[in-house]
Here is the input.
Amino acid sequence: MSVVPADVLPGSALAVEEPAACAAELGPRARLWPSLAAVYRAQLSRARVARIPLLFVATFQSIGIMILMRGVVDDGAEAQAVVAGSSVLVVAFVALNLLAQYFGQLRASGGLDHYATLPVPPAAVVLGAAGAYASFTVPGTVVTAVFGCVLFGLPLAHLWILVAVIPLAGAALAGLGAALGLLAPRPELATLLGQMGMSAALLLGVLPAERMPEVVRFARDLLPSTYGVEAFARTFGPNPDWAFVLGDLAVCALVGVVSLAVATWAYRRAAVR
Here is the structure.
């Protein structure tokens, strides 16, 4: 009588478990950065049609505000605040206002279901859309800053700081806009919240802080774009204090990480409903 190992018998449990274990193996999960790049390119190509009107409206609005303020504010610190606030307002118009409307409409129309079926991490969807919308702000912000410096007689030497101000302030405002759009129960409410956020960036960012009441100054400190405005405005002086500039940019970066994390959580919450 021969002895046969149990794992070779057709009816044995071991013979059944091995194919089942192989069948349960799934493919590798999609990595964040390739998924982010794919979503960014897709969003950029879809929004390309609206690029010119979008840039025109955001830039024309900020330039018009500076022209109106030219006869109201004095030179010096007030002029620096107006130019810096108007430049960052271009970022707020797109990254906060339009992104809140986009995600609000995407949630209402069931577009989140499309992304939920794709093997794409939620963070890639939020970051990709935020990056695509924020990219449209670069030409308008640069044009606004140059025009403001010429209009108010400010130096152009440190405009390179926009390389840091635009992405950091854009990340903070884009995360806030995406969160508002995803958490709003209706697209109309998302549009309203985006408009209110942009209005807050206009009133609290463009107007000089020295002329505001103490309560309004406190509200201004709570607005993410304020620190981008402060970082940009500090570079207009003859001897900028770069420690304070880096501190303001660090606050922008921190708020950007937190707001994008909240937007990612809001996306997960909206996608499963």
About this structure: The first helix runs from residue 13 to 23. Residues 90 and 244 are 23 Å apart (CA to CA).
